[in-house]
Structure formats: C-alpha cells, structure tokens
Amino acid sequence: MRVLKIEDMPKLESPFVRKMINGKFLVTSEVAPGYEWVFADPATIATEKLDGTDVSIVIEDGTVTSIWNRTYRIPFINKERRFIIDAVLESYDRGYCMLPDGQWFGEVIGKDVQGNPYGIDYTMWLPFNTYVRDKLSYNSWGKYPKTYESIRSWFQDGPISLFMLQHGIKDKLAEGIVFHNPRTEQMAKLRRDMFDFYAGSRHKEETKK
Fold first, then answer.
1. Residue 204 domain-assigned (yes or no)
2. Is 84 within a domain?
3. Which burial class, exposed, middle or buried, applies to 153 when counting CB atoms under 10 A from its CB (0-12, 13-18, 19+)?
C-alpha cells in the first residue's frame, strides 16, 4: 500500500513587494520577483480569501481517513479541535468531500473560527481546488487593468465577499484575494490590510517584520 506523504499548506506571499513603512508592513507598487504571472498570465484566477484556518483531508479508497491542521493530525475524537471535525462532517454531508484519493487543502470557517466574521452558526470545510475555485472566483478580475493603482483602488471599496453574497448579504467585504495559476499550481495572496489605506487591526504576523 502506497504511503501518502503529508504536505503542509504552503505559505502564500504577496505578489507585490512589501516594506516597513511608518511601522506597518505594506505592499508597494513593485511586483515581487517570481510573481509576474499574477498580472501577466491570462490563466490566473482570483478567488475570495476566506478568513478561517487551513485544514487538509486525506482521502483513500474514497474515504476520508485523516484530517490535518497544517502538519498536526486531528484525532477523530478531539475535544479541543472538535470544530474542525464538525466542519469536515458538515462538508461531507453537503458533498464537498466527494473527491479523488489524495490530500486536499481547504479552509475551515464559521463559529469558533477567527471570531466567525461570516456570522454562521456552524463550521464547514471548503476545498480550494473545487468549491473555492468554482464558486468563489471573481470573474471581474479579467476585466481590471493589472496595475498596482487599479488593484489598490479596487481593494478600497471591495472586493465583496462572494461567500456572504451567496448567503444574501451584499455589503460584506472579503478579507482579500488568493490568486491561482491552474497550469502551474502557483498561488499568491493579497489582503486588504496589506495596503496603506487600511485603518483596522492588522494580522499579527505583520507586526513581526
């Protein structure tokens, strides 16, 4: 029997160079080396960046055999991280776990996760390569000029959360965007709190640079 090597979700970086400016780790107008594809490759897809926690599941012979929070295996009987187990069960019931054998990455969102910015009374696991790409993609990305100024302007009043829009709420802003290249599997992220105009609290990681 082949033993599957468990991978960690790769850390996603900004497609723009970031610098400390007045004590804040902000994006600049300079494209980060190696991330030119975000703006130059027409195959690039822009999806909503969900505000939750990274979780992967392993499917073997059509069955979910293990659940991972980064590289930590979640026991199926686990009081501390029961919300993750509940999230996968919720998604299983919705058919989101009907995936080929392998390790699948996704985001757990909902109650007990990051303060539940979506205001839902349950947790669910949303796989990146299927649900997120299929249902949370911004079709307008292909219409925008691929310049720092244009993207900065878009992020000042948006992007609107597509997940919340599907739940009848039209004025909730997304945390940011994740860029995917389906041909190369490259990914990058851009959050609203990476820009100079953002006035709210920033991710803790931004204070450590």
1. no
2. yes
3. middle
In the sheet that holds 63-69, the strands lie side by side as: 72-74, 63-69, 53-60, 102-110, 123-127
Q: Do 59 and 161 share a domain, yes or no?
A: no
Q: Write out the residue range of the structural domain in which residue 77 sits.
A: 51-131
Q: Give the position of tokens 């929070």.
A: 69
Rounded to two decimals, the pTM is 0.90
- Read off the pLDDT of residues 1-43 as tens digits, 9 standing for 90 and up: 456 788 888 899 999 999 999 999 999 999 999 999 999 999 9
Residues recorded for the chain: 209
CATH of the domain at 124: 3.30.470
Q: How far apart are CA 122 and CA 32, in angstroms?
A: 38
Structural contact between residues 27 and 193, judged by C-beta atoms closer than 8 angstroms: no
Our count of domains for the chain comes to 2
Asked whether residue 83 falls in the same domain as residue 99, the answer is yes
| pLDDT value at residue 83 | 94
Environment class of residue 109 by beta-carbon count within 10 Å: exposed (0-12), middle (13-18) or buried (19+)?
Answer: buried
Structure tokens at 197: 């105009």
Integer Cα distance of 182 and 185 in angstroms? 5
